[in-house]
Amino acid sequence: MTSPILLTTTTTAAAAPLTTTLLKRAEAPIPAIPAAILTALGVTTVTLLGQTGGRPTWWLPIPVLLTVLAVPLALADLRHLRLPDVLTLSAYPLLGAAIGAAALGGGGPALAIRATAGALLFGGAHALVHRAKPGSLGAGDVKLSGSLGSVLGAVGWSALAVAAVLASLLSLVTALATRTHRVPHGPALLTATWLCAVFPGAP
What does the DSSP 8-state code read for residue 59? Predict the structure, then answer.
C-alpha cells in the first residue's frame, strides 16, 4: 500500500468515531469499529481504483468524502430506518466543497454547473415522489437525494438516470430477499451514487 493510500485511509478512519458520536446524539447509534473498518476499506478501494484507473487526482476527494458519509448513513438507516439530519444536511456543504475543489482543480465550471443542476433535479424528483406517495420514500431520503444528486451531476447527466434505476432495483431486490415491504431506500441510493462516483466513466 502506497503512502498516499495509507494516509488517506488512516485520516478517513479517524473520522468514524466522530460520526458515531454524532449519530448517537441523534438517537441512531451505529457500531464504531465496523463503521471504521468499512470506511477504511471503502476509502482504500476508492484510492486504489483511482490510481489504477488513470482518473485525475482532482476527482478523488469526491468519492472519498462520499464514502466517509455513506458508511455511517447506510448503517444508521439499516439499523434504525433513519437518515439523521446531522449527516444528511452536513453532506451539502461537505460535498459542495469537494465538488468546488474538483472544479477548480481541473473539472472546470461545467462540472460545478452540472452538480448544481443535478442536486435540483435529483432532489426535486425525490421530493415529488415523496409528496405523491409518502410511504414510498421517507423525508430523510429526500434530504439525502439533493446532495447525492450533486455528485451524480458532477459525474454526468446520464449518471442521474443510472443511479435512480439502480437504486430502485437494489431496494426491490432487498425487499424480495427479506420479504418485507419496509425496506430503507437510503443504502440503495448511497450504493448507486457511490458506484457512479467511483466509476465515473461507466454511466
Answer: G
Distance between start and end Cα atoms, the chain = 29
Sign of the torsion formed by the C-alpha atoms of 51, 54, 58 and 62:
negative
Predicted structure pTM score: 0.91
Query: Burial, 137: exposed, middle or buried (Cβ in 10 Å; 0-12, 13-18, 19+)?
Result: buried
Query: In angstroms, rounded to a whole number, what is the distance separating the alpha carbons of residues 73 and 38?
Result: 12
| Cβ atoms 143, 83 nearer than 8 A | yes
Instruction: Determine the Cα–Cα distance for residues 165 and 128; give it in Å rounded to an integer.
Output: 16
Three-state SS annotation for 178-193: HCCCCCCCHHHHHHHH
121 Cα distance to chain centroid: 16
137-155 confidence digits (pLDDT tens): 899 999 999 999 999 999 9
Cβ–Cβ under 8 Å, residues 154 and 106: no
DSSP conformational letter for 58:
G
